[in-house]
Amino acid sequence: QLIAKKHDQDMTLVSLSSEVIFGGEEVVIIGGPCSVESQEQMDTVAEKLSAAPVQALRGGVYKPRTLPYSFQGLGQAGLEILARVRREHQIPVVTEVMAIAQIEELAAVADLLQVGSRNMQNFDLLKALGQAGKPILLKRGLAATIEEFLGAAEYIVSHGNPQVVLCERGIRSFDNFTRNVLDLGAVVALKQLTHLPVIVDPSHAVGKRELVAPLAKAAIACGADGLIIECHPEPEQSISDARQALSLEDMVALVHSLQPVAAAI
Ligand code: PEP
Ligand code: MN
Question: Per the UniProt record, which residue ranges are transmembrane (predicted)?
Answer without folding.
Answer: none
